[in-house]
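Retro notes - structure team

What went well: the batch runner handled both jobs without manual restarts.
What didn't: labels got mixed up in the shared folder, which is why I'm recording both outputs here explicitly, each with its sequence directly above its tokens.

Job 1
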Amino acid sequence: MEIYIVQLNDTIQSIAEKYGITVEKLIEDNGLAQPNHLVIGQALVITFPKQTYIVQQGDTLKEIADSFDVTIMQLIRNNPHLSDNKTINPGEKLVISYSTSKSISTNGFCYPFIKQDTLIKSLPYLTYLSIFNYTTTKEGNIFTYQDETNIIKTAKEFSVVPLLMASTLTPLGEQNIELAYNILLNETYQNNLINLIIQIMKNKGYQGTNIIIYHLNENNQHLFFNFILKISQCLHEEGFLLFLSINYNITTNNKNHYANIDFSKFNDIVDNLVFTQFVWTSNYIPPAPVNNISYLRELIKDVSLKTPSNKIMISIPTIGYDWTLPYIPNSSNIYTLSLDTVLEIAYQTNSVIYFDENSLTPYLYYNQFYSENIIQHLIWFIDARSYMSLTQIIIDYNLSGNAIWNVMSFNPQLYTVITSQFSITKLITSTDS
């Protein structure tokens, strides 16, 4: 796999010819909604499959999968258009396999209002699906937002393990540290919360829980450990999985903040330790990279010294953020954008995409004309170069895999980067709930 950066006067045809691939393949691998709207500085993924097959008259997907000793799920991952319509036509070229380096687990995060077609497109690439539908309230009670039964059912049909995502956050990402401490300091509230989580998982068909914790530091780590130990014992006795997602702070760029936290205490009590960065527009964060990948690498380097690498996951963000400038704390507007939207804004405003070598993430500036005023914007986002840097951390430290925040919109370029390097682990085969 290679990454090409769009230059002045490039066209989708000229790039395809340069690498000896079809325009259709280039468009599909990168999910180009507007293939003729290329932007200077845009990153494109160029893949070279290990094995391909030309469909013959009378072929079926199952027959092709069986003949190459692969799964239908793998064919769908390597040929994303098949998720929309599993019909194949004679003469069609299918990607059978890539030269992958290892198998990894992938954990996608979603809200219960995810569109069904987006969910179906995303599930072939996932091992786990963490569903954000429950917020912990006072006294360890749980508030739910809407019914997610169909999401759980669909996930299992694609051999994806559904995880109940539990936190003190609202759907807008608003934190309540006082509420978190109320639970951490009160065993009665803890017992109530744990019992409710187990009850919901049994009733809904979840197979595990993903607990998100904020504000972990040297002084309070014993409180979090005691709580996670208790919930671990209860969940594992019932046969459920337990994931622990730690929201690390990249804005401080202060690696020493975690130097005195003993993550190894969680080694034997959680099934996966996920280092992630949840960012919501409601947080009113100042303009900054969506993810500081260089800092994350240093963090994982330290953590992996005491924690088994096969229990560590790192997050991959899929969304960008658009700030109005100059930035005014608690006042400036911040917008969440998909990669498609970022690229279309760049094209329509004739902007150039730049790349920050420190955080390993792209950004751009553009002007918005409103009446007689000009409003400047700054967008930080993630592209193929960032995905490659993140997957390289997985390879270098032999990690369990990644956690995708989030899968509410389908991101073909991300999945191309993943599937061209890794096989995706599937832990369940039955679609029965």
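Job 2
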Amino acid sequence: MLIIDAHQDIAYNALEWGRDIRRSVYETRQREERYTGDPESHPTKGAGGIAMSGLPELRRAGFAVVCATIFCEPCSSQHIPACGKQLTQSYRTAEEAYQVGQAQFAYYHELAREPGISLILNQADLQRHLQAWEASSPEDPQRPFGIIPLMEGADPIRTPEETEQWHAQGLRIIGLAWQGTRYSGGTRAPGPLPQLGRDLLRVMERVGIILDMSHSAEESFWQALENYSGPIMASHSNCRIYTPTDRHLSDEMIRALIERDAVIGMVPGNFFLNGEWRRNHRFPVMLEQVVRHIDHICQLSGDALHVGLGSDIDGGFGRDETPEELDTALDFVKIADALRQNGYTEADILNIMGGNWQRFLSHALPAS
């Protein structure tokens, strides 16, 4: 089954935590301090958790394409990992953000030199890649694996005009916000879209970069819709009706995205699925909660054409913070099983697991 995942922090995990995506997830777990069963003791607590992904598992599971992020954390977020590590993928100034972002982009270009891994930069690339993937075997250690570069939080772009340089390097999707950035209000940082953000949107539309609405503060969200006519998506956002924080999408926001033919990536993180789950208040969460969020979007749209996957695994959270049925990337096919058990047709399941992102990217990416 084709799986397209709209959000993984591959470069960040490699450069911040030394997690090499080329390794098996089991090797990564062995290399990291052994998990004792107490989440508080895990070395990457609050910064990725227990590893879930590695290329061997992603390939066998059917992950054909991943939108891989360029993500650097503002020092103002005051996020201090429990392990005490000094963060390197962080910034205080636009210049520092630029340097971190460029290093992550260089990582992706180097990764794409590996057998079977490629950067997907246009519609022709996507078509060729998926044809090769369809002809491949899940057991092929070099099964085609495609990466679409996505910037999460636009601060690495020093000026709006510099967007052309990033586009020439291969950047194809930009989310203006993470928390608040110079370009947009964001999660836990409410506010409008400043003039700098409007200027960035104009350049993005001119050069042909997709706008990712995840993390946008509500006021900035609506103003971005008014100021950008190109393709939009939400790489990793759930439904606010079930998780009532500004990180997630209200029904009005979901309807607006549907009207623009967007796709919304569901995140299987426990604290994104259930508003009562906390790292200091844990309880079992099941895949039924993922289905609940998916189904809500389908009910609002009247079909199953506007929702997909945006996992954020090993970036936003790890095994210790996902539904009980998920251990590694190999288990993502269980989402399809859960949808099947809830009456979804095979056609709808194929669309949710990857077909909707395939359709969206097939027209949203540049033609060539």
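One thing worth noting from job 2: Residues 35-40 have pLDDT under 50 and may be disordered.
We'll revisit the folder naming next retro.
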